[in-house]
Design goal:
heterodimer, A: about 600 residues, mainly alpha, B: about 350 residues, alpha/beta, Beta-Lactamase, five-stranded antiparallel sheet, 12 strands, about 20% strand, CCDC22 (chain A), Coiled-coil domain-containing protein 22 (chain A)
Chain lengths: ~600, ~350
């Protein structure tokens, strides 16, 4: 990690970030330094993006937040760009870097380091082994007898490894690409691999054609100068379609179009050579040299000398003149042929007409009868045709019905298979997720096991669990006892209540009874007094007992409080505070005395 | 009259049936007497049932390889004798241009097919029209071929609409037609395209040639090859891509934008002068007159055209074998645009000698 930090800091210094000399670890970077480093890096990667970013953080918090957000966005953008770049060049970079033994350098340093062996690649040919492809005997023979082994195919040894690597990576990457493409699009298209490939080929061809065609549309400003590329492209387009480039010169057309082409000034939009021809024979000769100069000359004119160019131009001129003569004669011929064809067509038509008229004339003498006969014949053949049609219908209708029924079955099967496919996909996903989870769980299990092993072994877990279980049992028992006591208490209370009630009622009744008799008899009066006293005393007794009970409870509560208070150590704290207070007072007085003195 | 009937009915070539079923397939299910594989492909392409079911076009027509085709499409409503069919089209091919006639005929055939569920009854009606020129129509009346005169078809479009859309620029279309140039019209909706293009040949009324009209063309190799066989044409495309195909046209009309463009290669031949201005004035004035009907406007234009042609013929007659040459034309010292135009017109009308 230190090495990486050093490399990074060095790179940042190169970019212009002012990293202090003593800073050599990334975790020593302050936030300001980080911001400056990031901004400078972005400026190097994408100047346009980095222009708007400040290298130092503004003071205000909201401004800082804004800057931070813009930085984050810029980073994301460059990261995605770099990622694409990285993927396409990662392989090459690796290969290039691997030529530099042992050292791992940043891309900044790559140019200086790739000195020992440059990465040259040469094309190799090796026999391919594709399944199911039939091999021509000649190819097999060539591969067996003449094709050199790969090591001998190259001019220099230095390029051997790189060429082999290149070929293998190309094969590998194409196989991988085909795999991913087949898995994603190929399976969905439900075609065989060959069908899929051929469809892709036609699709691509079409696209190329379209692109070329749109590129072949020339600029409207040119007069003679239809650019060479355009006519080349239209040639290419024609080869796509199978027609020959000579069609450019002589297209099919009527008598009129040919006269048109050869008499009018016309710069056609598709780069035909005839576009350079002007009306009037006289003008032609004067123009041809010019046209020859403007007419596309081969690609490598630039490299040849003046004399050669002139010579070739003259040759071209002669050739074109010849061509022109030829074309004129061809045109005349074509004109004649056209007329001939037209006349022949007219002839046949007229012949047919005369035949019909002749027949009608023959039938004229007995016109009505014949007319009737003809009409009946026509009706008869019409009926026959209709009859045939109905017979055909008997065959056709069930066939169409069958076709539709089978199509329906096919589409339902399609539906089923696509649902199954989606099920399979979801199952696949679930499997992946489950394996990932299983891996995670395994990892965490391993971690926990190691943690467990590292924990102190002295106290056994079982002792703890036993104690816990004991305590739980005890608590349960206590709970039971408490509930029992509670229920007993309730019962007692109920009894007391009922007894008190009974007592009151009995006393009330007795009281009344005795009082009634008390008026008459002296002994009854006395007994009434004793009854009242008894009642009173008993009440007092009960009251006293109750009070005793309450006081006992209070005592218990107070005792509990005392215990808790004792734990608070309030007394000791208070004593300490008192001591401190005394000490401070003494000090205060001492200081005051000192002050007074001094 | 009998003669007319037979020559008329010999124009009908075939009738075909296309069905779209509950599976979403569009199939060519029946035809009489026979339709070539190429034409079948074409008709399936033109039929709106194969076009992703986005738009439904009741009636379209067009021309391919000198054959006119007329396709009527119907959605099947319950109750019906047809099983598992959601839509169907009837494609009639013929040698002549007459949309109204064939639209009426195919409507009758459609109704028959829906009612009976079998093409046999439909074929009976077709044969009756073929042999007798008449058949029963839906409203217990009669469909008569002779009610649909070809002139009516030619004049059925509205030239006034064309002029009201393009005003003085209509002269470009006129010039292109007169000089037998290639006009390509684009509109995304086929009905608008058909309505517009069918009336354009009327600008060259003296020729009464609707064979230059190809109102519904797709950018396929076969159709474009067929188109290129004609030196001059009016071709209608719904595909906006056609504007990039500069090799297909001398004049490009973008109907939705009401813009007419002359391609670079044709600018010389289409140069306009005072003569064109005169003709343009005639066209616009006649079309703007509310009292004049469409056929009267066409007549006015054709009168002016005849004037020009008569003058040209007079010029040509002055030369040997009644063919004009450039030198003779130059001697008259016309203004250059007019001279250019007359030269090209003479070529188009086969009055020119090189």
């Amino acid at each position: 990690m230190e090495e990486v930090d050093k490399i990074l800091i060095h790179a940042l210094r190169q970019v212009g970030t002012e990293v202090g000399e003593d800073v050599d670890r990334l975790n020593q970077f302050t936030s300001e330094l980080i911001v400056e480093a990031v901004v400078r890096c972005i400026r190097v990667i994408d100047p346009a993006l980095g222009e708007g970013l400040p290298t130092s953080l503004p003071p205000g918090m909201s401004a800082r937040f804004r800057v931070g957000m813009s930085l984050a966005q810029a980073c994301q953008k460059t990261y995605s760009n770099i990622r694409i770049l990285y993927h396409t060049t990662s392989l090459l970079l690796f290969l290039a870097v691997s030529w530099v033994p042992l050292n791992c350098r940043l891309p900044l340093h790559c140019e200086t380091q790739v000195s020992s062996h440059s990465f040259h690649v040469r094309p190799l040919s090796s026999p391919h082994c594709t399944n199911g492809q039939k091999y021509l005997k000649e190819v097999k023979d060539y591969q067996r007898d003449f094709l050199l082994p790969v090591t001998a195919q190259l001019p220099s040894q230095t390029s051997m490894v790189s060429s082999i690597l290149e070929q293998h990576t190309a094969d590998l990457s194409s196989a991988q690409e085909w795999d991913t493409e087949w898995k994603s699009q190929g399976l969905l298209s439900r075609l065989t691999p060959q069908e899929y490939r051929s469809r892709k080929l036609t699709r691509l061809r079409k696209r190329i054609e379209e692109q070329l065609r749109s590129a072949a549309a020339p600029s409207p400003e040119s007069v003679f100068g239809v650019p060479r590329s355009a006519s080349e492209l239209s040639d290419l387009l024609h080869t796509f379609r199978g027609s020959t480039p000579s069609d450019l010169i002589l297209t099919k057309g009527s008598h009129f179009t040919h006269t048109q082409k050869f008499t009018f000034t016309q710069v056609s939009a598709s780069g035909r050579v005839d576009g350079a021809l002007q009306n009037g024979f006289s003008a032609n000769c004067a123009l041809l040299p010019q046209e020859a100069a403007a007419v596309p000359s081969p690609v490598h004119t630039g490299r040849q000398s003046e004399g050669d160019a002139q010579l070739r131009q003259q040759e071209e001129l002669a050739a074109l003149q010849q061509q022109f003569q030829q074309l004129c004669s061809d045109v005349d011929l074509m004109v004649v042929f056209d007329e001939l064809k037209q006349r022949e067509m007219e002839n046949t038509k007229n012949e047919e007409k005369t035949q019909v008229k002749k027949k009608t004339i023959d039938l004229l003498p007995d016109a009505d009868n014949n007319l009737q006969k003809l009409q009946s014949q026509v009706e008869a053949s019409a009926n026959r045709v209709v009859n045939l049609a109905s017979q055909w219908e008997k065959h056709r209708a069930p066939l169409i019905e069958e076709h539709r029924r089978l199509k329906e079955i096919c589409s339902t099967k399609d539906l089923e298979s696509s649902t199954k496919l989606s099920e399979i996909n979801s199952l696949h996903d679930k499997i992946c997720a489950a394996t990932a989870e299983a891996k995670k769980k395994e990892e965490s299990y391993k971690q926990l096991v190691t943690e467990l092993e590292s924990l102190p072994q002295d106290v056994s877990r079982s002792a703890y669990t036993q104690r816990i279980l004991e305590i739980v049992g005890n608590i349960k028992k206590q709970k039971e006892e408490i509930t029992k006591i509670l229920s007993d208490t309730k019962e007692l209370q109920k009894e007391i209540n009922s007894l008190t009630g009974k007592l009151d009622r009995t006393f009330a009744v007795t009281d009344e009874l005795v009082f009634k008799d008390a008026k008459k008899d002296e002994s009854v009066r006395k007994s009434y007094k004793y009854l009242a006293a008894l009642h009173e005393n008993c009440n007092q007794l009960i009251q006293t007992i109750e009070d005793t009970g309450t006081i006992l409870r209070e005592i218990r509560d107070l005792e509990e409080q005392i215990e808790t208070e004792n734990c608070n150590k309030t007394v000791t704290n208070l004593e300490r505070i008192m001591d401190d207070y005394k000490a401070i007072r003494q000090e205060n007085s001492a200081l005051a005395a000192k002050v007074r003195e001094g | 009259e009998w003669n007319m009937a037979t020559t008329e009915t010999q124009l009908m070539l075939s009738v075909g049936l296309i069905e779209k079923d509950v599976n979403g397939d569009t199939l060519w299910v029946w035809c009489y007497p026979s339709v070539s594989a190429e034409l079948r492909q074409l008709l399936l392409r033109k039929c709106c049932l194969t076009q992703d079911g986005r738009d439904f076009h009741t009636f379209v027509f067009g021309q391919f390889s000198r054959t006119w085709y007329y396709i009527t499409t119907l959605e099947v409503q319950e109750p019906t004798a047809l099983n598992k069919v959601t839509h169907f089209s009837i494609a009639v091919t013929a040698k002549d241009f007459n949309p109204e006639k064939y639209a009426a005929l195919s409507r009758i055939l459609c109704r028959m097919y829906v009612k009976h569920g079998s093409p046999v009854k439909m074929m009976e009606a077709y044969i009756t029209v073929l042999t007798k020129g008449v058949c029963q129509n839906d409203e217990n009346g009669l469909f008569l071929i002779k009610d649909y005169d070809v002139r009516k078809a030619y004049l059925a479009g509205s030239i006034k609409d064309v002029v009201s859309q393009f005003g003085m620029e209509t002269i470009i279309l006129y010039t292109a037609l007169i000089l037998k140039k290639r006009i390509v019209v684009h509109h995304p909706r086929i009905e608008a395209l058909l309505e517009f293009t069918r009336v354009l040949p009327a600008l060259a009324w003296h020729r009464k040639d609707w064979s230059v009209l190809h109102p519904y063309v797709h950018l396929t190799a076969a159709e474009l090859d067929d188109l290129k066989k004609c030196p001059g044409y009016i071709a209608g495309f719904v595909d906006p891509e056609v504007s990039n195909r500069l090799e297909l046209f001398d004049v490009f009309v973008s109907l939705p934008d009401s813009v007419i463009t002359v391609s670079q290669g044709a600018k010389d031949a289409m140069a306009m002068g005072k003569l064109h201005k005169d003709v343009a004035q005639v066209i616009v004035q006649s079309a703007e007159d509310a009292e004049r009907s469409d056929s009267q406007v066409i007549k006015d234009i054709s009168i002016k055209t005849k004037e020009i042609l008569t003058n040209l013929c007079a010029l040509a007659d002055a030369c040997e074998d009644s063919k004009l040459t450039l030198e003779v034309l130059k001697q008259h010292h016309f203004p250059p645009a007019t001279e250019n135009f007359l030269f090209h017109l003479a070529a188009a009308e086969q009055l020119l000698r090189i």
